[in-house]
Specification:
By secondary structure, this protein is α/β, with parallel strands linked by helices. The protein contains 15 helices and 16 strands. The structure holds N-(iminomethyl)-L-glutamic acid and fe (iii) ion. The site of fe (iii) ion has 5 residues, from loops.
């Protein structure tokens, strides 16, 4: 059994509030802060959080970590990434800088399909190594739990290899079998027939959730309903990429099917905001994607004010968001989405954990939760969002063990 870990003399411990997840309304911004604090971890879990003056004598073996000058927050939870890919899209990035749009590149057979070509050509060992590499980048920005989607195979062998790569790297696998239609099919419904008959049975064994890109040029609402309904019947939780470029019915469909989340929402209007806020579906906001594609930001403030449960994620992928940093996403949340630092912290910890079905285990610094802890290189936890693209993460603890330290 690993010895207990005592993180002592922390300037602050900051954790989302105690209301039942997903947090919404005033609960979204209800972060609790303990000053001059300690955290005691035992057997991979948090055993105690308290103030230094209440710290009693600890018998037996205890490893100590000095928290002087640092604020502790829960390990960050990235609930939407696409990390299992080969190749890059740096050439398309340059074309977009010169004026080409993401949708034009997609329609011309580039975009997602260019990553599909590279990913199909890679071995499973290559995809696993790439996912580990990307996971390392995320960890250095404080991510202790990540979800990872397939969707760059669009054939049985490569989709399953992507799901295994995500699991091998410690991620939570989501089957994005309905990302777009690959070139060997000219009809989305024929492609879905193949996916549901040939891939779903094995994907359902590997993945926890299914996801679909509901958008012009990929799948419409009827096709998304067919795909997601079959996935739900196979035991998978449901997610949707929706309202990224056009409002195409993703929110009503997510509510109808009881999906965990609908993600993107850059094109969501007033009625969508109202409907999502009245539902149990979490709106996952991806401001790094909107920034990277020079698209409008999602209506985050309106969603939060209407009482919607929102989460934040990077959308890490080679095309629309080559960004692995949740602290940067928190900065964008405060400056572009007009969320408070407290709302941003809740959105990428406990609410993101809820999207992954883990809100009773991760996302809070409280007894019984996993000892996934980030120490910031600052005495005020709000530096998480304040230090724009700064090296704000100093130490990452996962399951009560040191996982990463800056400069080590
Ligand atoms: O969430 N929009 C669809 N899917 C991804 C991007 C995938 C890609 O461009 O490779 C997204 O933005
Ligand atoms: Fe995505």
């Amino acid at each position: 059994m690993t010895p207990r870990l005592l993180i002592r003399d922390l300037a602050q411990v900051a954790t989302p509030g105690t209301a039942a997840p997903p947090l919404r309304g005033s609960g979204l911004g209800a972060v609790e802060v303990v000053e001059d604090a300690y955290i005691l971890c035992d057997d991979g879990l948090i055993a105690e959080v308290g103030t230094m003056r209440d710290l009693g004598t600890l018998d037996g073996e205890v490893v100590e970590l000095d928290g002087h000058g640092r604020a502790a927050i829960p390990g960050l939870v990235d609930c939407h990434t696409h990390p299992a890919f080969a190749g890059d899209r740096v050439g398309e990035f340059a074309l977009r800088a010169a004026g080409a749009s993401y949708e034009e590149l997609h329609a011309a057979g580039g975009g997602i399909l260019s990553t599909v070509r590279a990913t199909r050509a890679a071995s499973e060992a290559d995809l696993t190594a790439a996912t580990f590499r990307h996971r390392g980048w995320m960890r250095a920005h404080g991510t202790t739990t990540f979800e990872g989607k397939s969707g760059y195979g669009l054939d049985r062998e490569t989709e399953l290899a992507q799901l295994r790569a995500v699991a091998a790297a410690g991620g939570v696998p989501t089957w994005l079998g309905a990302h777009t239609v690959p070139p060997e099919f000219d009809d989305p419904d024929a492609y879905l027939d193949y996916e549901l008959a040939e891939v779903l049975p094995a994907a359902a064994e590997l993945a926890e959730a299914a996801d679909v890109f509901l958008e012009r040029g990929s799948f419409d609402a009827a096709q998304a309903r067919r795909y997601l309904s079959a996935c739900a019947a196979a035991g998978l939780a449901l997610r949707l990429h929706g309202d990224q470029f056009t409002e195409s019915g993703a929110i009503p469909l997510a509510i109808e099917l009881g999906a965990r989340s609908v993600d993107h929402l850059e094109a969501t209007g007033t009625e969508g905001v109202r409907a999502l806020a009245a539902s149990d579906v979490v709106g996952v906001l991806l401001p790094a994607s909107a920034l990277f594609l020079d698209r409008p930001m999602p209506p985050a403030r309106a969603l939060a004010d209407a009482g919607a449960a929102v989460a934040l994620a990077t959308d890490f992928n080679p095309g629309s968001a080559f960004c692995d940093s949740l602290p940067l996403v928190c900065s964008l949340a405060c400056t572009q989405l007009h969320l408070s630092p407290a709302e941003a912290l809740t959105a990428c910890t406990v609410n993101a954990a809820h999207v992954l079905g883990r809100a009773n285990r991760i996302g809070k610094l409280a007894p019984g939760y996993a000892a996934d802890i980030v120490l910031l290189d600052a005495t005020d936890w709000r530096y998480l969002a304040y230090h724009l693209a700064g090296d704000v993460v100093h130490t990452v603890v996962e399951n009560g063990a040191l996982a990463w330290t800056r400069g080590a």
